[in-house]
């Protein structure tokens, strides 16, 4: 353990440009068995002055290092979008369970679902949404999990048929069954 402590205290760190032992005591740790010499008080004053200088140098190096780290971290940050009540948003399905989305593979899941309406702004990081009862997730969502809904260009807009509710479950009217397929013991239909 003593060897590990010595190695830690003797290592020169990039942030401070000196070892922790030198920052604390103003000198490098002793290697071997040196005979200590008696020193005068003048040396003590010089030691105090040197220590203050080393502490200032270490503090300046740490501040510079922090500024460089902040600049590097801020490069990847982007301005957070502001949401208002009644805005339409899409929810990311990144953390949804496949069972919730009723998909066989995560690869085929939609990246975003919606649009849903913002009901209330809880804080700058969270919003409350108007979600259907079938979507069994919490109404309050972090803004990192949503994206603003943008209307599609004229001619591209897909208008889904309104669902018909039978016994409180949504059903759609089927015109024709185009194809049938069995996968993993379940029958799937392609309908029009």
Short description:
The protein has helices spanning 2-10, 20-25, 41-75, 98-101; strands at residues 88-92, 112-121, 126-130, 140-142, 146-148, 164-166, 169-171, 177-183, 186-191.
Structure description:
The protein is built from four helices and nine strands. It is α+β, with helices and mostly antiparallel strands. It has two domains: 2-75, no CATH class; 88-160, no CATH class. The chain has a five-stranded antiparallel beta sheet with strand order 4-3-2-1-5, with no helix packed on it. The longest helix is centred in the first third of the chain and has 35 residues, at 41-75. It starts with a helix and ends with a strand.
Produce the secondary structure layout.
Layout: H1 2-10, H2 20-25, H3 41-75, E1 88-92, H4 98-101, E2 112-121, E3 126-130, E4 140-142, E5 146-148, E6 164-166, E7 169-171, E8 177-183, E9 186-191
Antiparallel strand pairs: 1-2, 1-5, 2-3, 3-4, 6-7, 8-9
Give the proportion of residues in helices: 25-40%
Order of strands across the main sheet: 4-3-2-1-5
Alpha carbon gap, first and last residue: 74 Å
Whole-number tally of structural domains: 2
Low-confidence stretches: none
Number of helices: 4
Shape verdict: elongated
Class by alpha and beta content = alpha+beta
CA radius of gyration: 32 Å
Per DSSP E runs of 2 or more residues, the count of β-strands stands at 9
Largest sheet: 5 strands, antiparallel
Strand content: 15-25%
H/E series, N to C?
HHHEHEEEEEEEE
Average residue pLDDT: 81
Tags for this model:
single chain; alpha+beta; 2 domains; 4 helices; elongated
């Amino acid at each position: 353990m003593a060897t590990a402590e010595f190695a830690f205290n003797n290592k020169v760190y990039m942030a401070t440009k000196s070892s922790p032992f030198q920052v604390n005591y103003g000198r490098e740790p002793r290697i071997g068995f040196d005979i200590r010499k008696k020193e005068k008080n003048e040396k003590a004053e010089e030691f105090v002055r040197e220590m203050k200088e080393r502490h200032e140098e270490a503090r300046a190096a740490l501040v510079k290092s922090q500024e460089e780290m902040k600049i590097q971290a801020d490069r990847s940050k982007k301005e957070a979008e502001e949401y208002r009540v009644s805005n339409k948003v899409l929810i990311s399905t990144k953390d949804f369970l496949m069972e919730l989305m009723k998909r066989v593979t995560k690869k085929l899941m939609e990246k975003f679902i919606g649009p849903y309406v913002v009901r209330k702004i809880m804080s700058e990081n969270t919003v409350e949404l108007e979600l259907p009862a079938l979507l069994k997730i919490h109404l309050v969502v972090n803004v990192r999990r949503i994206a603003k809904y943008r209307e599609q260009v004229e001619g591209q807009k897909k208008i889904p048929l309104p669902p018909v509710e039978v016994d409180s479950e949504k059903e759609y009217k089927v015109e024709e069954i185009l194809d049938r397929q069995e996968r993993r013991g379940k029958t799937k239909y392609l309908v029009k």
